[in-house]
Structures are given as structure tokens and as C-alpha cells.
Amino acid sequence: MKITIFGATGGTGRHVVEQALEAGHHVTAVVRDPAGLPSSGSLEPVVADVMRPEAIEASVAGRDAVISALGPRGRGAGQVCAEGAHSIAAAMRAARARRLVVVTAGGHVVDAGDDLLNRVLVKPLLRRFLREGFADFARTEEIVRGSGLDWTIMRPPRLTDGARRPYRSAVDRNVRGGITIARADLAHAILAALDDPATAGHTISVGY
Prior knowledge:
Elements: E1 2-6, H1 11-22, E2 26-31, E3 43-47, H2 53-60, E4 65-68, H3 80-95, E5 99-103, H4 116-129, H5 131-145, E6 150-155, E7 158-160, E8 168-171, E9 180-182, H6 183-194, E10 202-207
Parallel strand pairs: 1-2, 1-4, 2-3, 4-5, 5-6, 6-10, 7-9
Antiparallel strand pairs: 8-10
Helix pairs in contact: 1-6, 2-3, 3-5
Domain NAD(P)-binding: 7-197
InterPro entries: NAD(P)-bd_dom, NAD(P)-bd_dom_sf, Polyketide_Oxido-like
Protein name: NADH-flavin reductase
């Protein structure tokens, strides 16, 4: 499979790149600085501004799937994820690419998968302290849902750098009690979603 990855040198993106290469995929990594990328004959680094659709159109043309692992770099990052999703979707439509997987988070969503503690205490507190980031994720999901593409939204809980281990997933709801997941396991779930056409048009939550 030919895959384009945005945010390829970020915490999650690095794992996605490594696991995609291990699985035999051809990876195009769109980055600002290619220094953090692994060396592989199946990896094509592209230095481009993700916020300019015309600059990334060639990087998504002819690809089987596109992954956005963009994430905010601390507070005050604004609408990085949403603006990136808008640009990526525009480039994909222009290039007639269809399959898109975007990473947001589960913290800004309260649904049937959440237990009472999360609904009434934990998530309301998170919304107060992480208001800007959660607003970015919510706007990102609006853009992706309205993109007209074959999208899947990945909603992880708090990310860690732990080792891979068995995890749980849920479709269109949060994973009950799943409060953390390792970035390596999130990467595995992202690639699994690419292989499953049934995930198109759905959100996938993961957690332990």
C-alpha cells in the first residue's frame, strides 16, 4: 500500500512510519525537517508546508491512504490540527485521493462509553484546563466529517511511551475505562483501520 503520513516525526507519527515500513508499505512522509525520519528505501521524505494544499497535493496524489498524525506542540498552538485537516482534505480532493485517517482524542467527547466518574468529574475538568486543544480537536472532526472523503477518526485517550501490549477498541464510542494507550499501540490501531474498509465513516476509540 502507498501511504502518505503527516506529522511523521511527532510522537505518534514516528511509530506509524516505522510500523508501516515494517509491514511492507511504501511511505511518503511530509515533514518540516526530515532529520528525524528513519532510513529506508521504501520511505520518501517530502519537505512541505502542510497548511498549503497546493504544496502537498503531489504528496497525496496516487496514494492508497493518507494519515494525519498532526498534534499541537504545547499550549497556544491554535488550530494546528483543524487547519492541517482542512488543507489535507483540500489537497486530497484536488488529487482525487479518497482514504483519510485522522488522529484527534477522546478527551473532548462524552458518550455512552464513559463511566459516571468520567462523565461528571474527569472530563469536565479536562475541558476546563485543555479548552484550546479540545476546541481544535472538535473543529478537526467537523472538517473531516464534512470532507466528502472516506474518513476514519482515531480517538485515543492519554498517550504514553510505554511498550506495546493488548489494547481494546470501540466503534463510535469511547472505550470504557480506557484512560491510556501507548503511542506504539495507537500506531498499530491506525494501520489496522486502514486495512478495514468498514471503519470508513466512523470514529475508532482505543485504550487499555
